[in-house]
Amino acid sequence: MSGRRGKRKKAKRFNRRPPVGAPPGTLVVEPQASPSSVRVLAYGPDGFTESAVHEIDKLQEYRDRYPVVWVDVVGLGDSGLMTKLGDHFGLHRLALEDVTSGDQRPKAEEFPEHLFIVAREILAREGIHSEQFSLFVGKNYVLTFQEHPDDALSPVRERLRQNLGRLRQLGSDYLAYAILDALIDAYFPVLESMGEQIEYLEATIVDKPESDVPFVIQQLKHDLIYMRRAVWPLREAVNKLLRDPHPCIGAETRLHLRDCYDHLVLIADFIETDRDQVAGLMELYLSAMSHRMNEVMKVLTIISTIFIPLSFIAGVYGMNFDTDASPWNMPELHWSMGYPLALVLMGGVAAAMLYFFWRQGWLAVLRPAPLPQADPNGDASKGPPAGLPPARPASSRSQPSPISSTTTPQGK
């Protein structure tokens, strides 16, 4: 487990903020931000096209030809490109400022001609961290902004390319739902991995706790905080889309958004459960270390207790006696078997004390109770031994419908 420790970079509280005194809507990008690239996926019931775009003015050709246009922007290093896209689609300047800030809380904002949605994309690379994902939904277009190309939207693109499901037959609002659903489904594998780490840590602590376990537990706590900050506000945003009607979201798509909301509720439950388990892991570690220390102290105490009478016997026979002064001054000093008798006496006392300790049960080593074995006759009434919690079913996290990003509801 020592290889799992690493230096954590100091996180900035605010990544990119406009300078103090700058007018509202000022776009600020980081110097080290990735260059921006634009890819268009335009489609309708009768056709589909995908290509890279270098001139924003050419987007109008796709909008005139296809019912739905998806403009996918990767990299936030070009403020001029953001401005041109905002002017072309009529995006609000404050919304564009939120796109480039990179530290926005997940939310859903309504504008007269479009919706603006912010989500967090969870990435599991040398730990858990999140990146901002911005989404604009209009009558016949969807704009997505992300910092890096490695995302969870590959299943959505493949469905468009292969014409799977009803994605090409429906409008831009359904495409926005499919994108949100893919982002949310990508949370489940991360939670599954974290659940496996928690189970591994629990087994390690019970078997043989290592010195770096507290650092791994702290890393898990930090990762769960990341997950919670991404999920809870997004659940509120999706609930707002369900609650408040908007011209850009149809009634049928609003029904599908309930599925996203249900997934977010399930993810939030998993996060809270994992947080409770991680908090209990530290207590379990401290208890295991205390138990281990008690076992060491018990062994040392038994050894010391055994040697106390032996030291007394050796001390008595080591005193200076004069047998000429009195026959009671240790007559064994002149006896040829005196030394063997002293050793036998010491060994007998030590053996008697060990037998007494064993009879009292003080030499017993505490071991965990064995886990219950599966009953070959299928008798489910036999539970775990008294004092042990029931084992969590293996399907508690592996639910096919919410986890699989390719499995979709009826008509999805």
Structure notes:
- With 412 residues, the chain is α+β, with helices and mostly antiparallel strands.
- It is built from ten helices and seven strands.
- The chain has two domains: 30-287, CorA soluble domain-like (Beta Polymerase, domain 2, 2-Layer Sandwich); 320-364, no CATH class.
- The protein has a seven-stranded mixed sheet, with helices on both faces.
- The longest helix has 67 residues, at 251-317.
- Residues 2-14 and 366-412 have low confidence and may be disordered.
Produce the secondary structure layout.
Blueprint (H helix, E strand, L loop, with lengths): L36 E8 L2 E7 L5 H7 L2 E7 L4 H11 L3 H9 L5 E4 L4 E10 L3 E10 L3 E6 L7 H9 L9 H14 L1 H21 L5 H31 L7 H67 L20 H23 L39 H4 L9
Parallel strand pairs: 3-7
Antiparallel strand pairs: 1-2, 1-3, 4-5, 5-6, 6-7
Helix pairs in contact: 5-8, 6-7, 6-8, 7-8, 8-9
Brief overview:
The protein is an alpha+beta fold and 412 residues long.
Beta-strand percentage? Answer: 5-15%
Order of helices and strands: EEHEHHEEEEHHHHHHH
Summarize the amount of helix as a percent range: 40-55%
What is the CATH third-level topology name of the largest domain?
A: Beta Polymerase, domain 2
Average pLDDT reading: 78
Strand order of the largest sheet: 2-1-3-7-6-5-4
The N- and C-terminal alpha carbons lie at a distance of 42 Å
Architecture per CATH nomenclature, i.e. the level-2 architecture of the largest domain: 2-Layer Sandwich
How many distinct folded domains? 2
CATH superfamily of the largest domain: CorA soluble domain-like
Number of helices: 10
Question: Which structural class should the secondary elements be placed in?
Answer: alpha+beta
What are the low-pLDDT stretches, counting only 5+ consecutive residues below 50? 2-14, 366-412
- Dominant shape: rod-shaped
Instruction: Give a count of the beta strands, DSSP E runs of length 2 or more.
Output: 7
